[in-house]
Design goal:
single chain, 135 residues, mainly alpha, three-stranded mixed sheet, 6 helices, 3 strands, 42% helix, globular
Length: 135
């Protein structure tokens, strides 16, 4: 029998490092526009966010884009907070275990790219049309 005494889940910092690596490999046409997006990693979304999104189970939300998409920004209406991509470690780990068919690095990359797509003005429906990942 295999002992799991040395096994541990990746930390917030390790998930963040995976996400930053993805952001560092964005194509040249996207990278400059993503450079100012703040990346934050928490264990789960806070209750206010879950309530606003009408989500009961915090393990259902792996990531979130919080900001004004580039397609809606206006120089006449300056933004008073930075665009932020949130990753939720416990939800990502839960999805990774449930899927069982992707690496953790692949899942983190997918969540980051999905949330950045919202920054570029794509809706969930737009993303789903070209990316069948969540099916």
């Amino acid at each position: 029998m295999t002992e799991w005494t040395d096994a541990r889940a990746p930390s917030l910092d390790e998930i963040e490092a995976m996400a930053r690596e993805v952001m560092g490999r964005l194509p040249d046409s996207f990278a400059p526009h993503a450079r100012d997006v703040v990346l934050k990693v928490e264990d789960v979304a806070d209750d206010d966010v879950l309530d606003e999104l009408q989500i009961d189970d915090p393990l259902e939300l792996t990531g979130l884009y919080d900001g004004i998409p580039l397609t809606e920004k206006s120089v006449s209406e300056p933004q008073h907070f930075p665009d932020t991509v949130w990753l939720f470690r416990r939800a990502i780990l839960d999805e990774w275990v449930e899927r069982g068919n992707v690496t953790l690095t692949e899942l983190v990359a997918h969540v980051v790219v999905h949330e950045l797509a919202h920054h570029f003005g794509w809706s969930d429906e737009d993303v789903a049309r070209i990316d069948r990942w969540w099916e």
